[in-house]
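User: Hello! I'm new to structural biology and keep hearing that structure can be predicted from sequence alone. Could you demonstrate with 6-phosphogluconolactonase? Please show me the input and the output so I can see what each looks like.

Assistant: Of course. The first part below is the input, the amino acid sequence of 6-phosphogluconolactonase. The second part is the output, the predicted structure written as tokens.
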Amino acid sequence: MPVHIHPTADEALHHLARYFCELAGQAIAARGRFVVALSGGSSPRKLYELLASTAFRDSVSWGQVYFFFGDERHVPHTDAESNYLMAKTALLAPLGILPEQVFAVDTSLPPAAAAQAYTRSLEQFFSGDGTQFDLVLLGLGDDAHTASLFPHTPVLQETQAGAREVFLADKQVYRITLTAPLLNQARAVVFLVYGAGKSTAVERVLNGAHDPARFPAQLIAPVGELHWFLDEAAASLLPDA
Ligand SMILES: O=C1O[C@H](COP(=O)(O)O)[C@@H](O)[C@H](O)[C@H]1O
């Protein structure tokens, strides 16, 4: 599994942006479309802004790219916490992506219904082809969660590919997440992690004992490629860094 360690976050972001464009070109040439699951939280915003910048925007046939979300907070799409809003602001609106290319979680529904509806959207979109993303972008929380697969939550036991609701008891909030079996069907999965605050989580996930209940990102083992793009700060506790 390639772990790419770059001196700075900016360099990691540029290398990942180039990889994104490369995969998009290959997928569009082979299958006529590029289907991506976006990550949320704070780290990917800079990647999205970079992809929409003059440096990269002409490197992808954006009209053939379809966007889903690896996870979403159960808040309105106008809420500052919304992963959809972040992606819309940083990537989708600047690139003029059409609404029919974007599959957001319907957070106006109650959490379980929103998850069921999202599972159905995925099934309809991929009908017959199997639900396989060309690329899943993921981040890593400092508690080793990824998407909304949080430590010690029941969704970690899920064996079916789909979307599920997750209740975070400490924050008393719901999220919707794609399950590990679904994420693992992807042709490529990429973690983008930068900053010293993530170094312990990176070390535990990549080098610690296998304990996905504590380190859920260890559940990610796709049938396709798996890459980690790190800066030196996030990689600082890895033995070879
Ligand atoms: O909550 C979330 O966090 C993880 C990590 O996000 P970051 O803000 O620490 O970079 C992210 O992968 C997930 O999509 C997001 O909803």
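User: So the tokens describe the shape?

Assistant: Right, they're a compact way of writing down the 3D structure. Reading them back into a model, for example: The CA atoms of residues 48 and 91 lie 5 Å apart.
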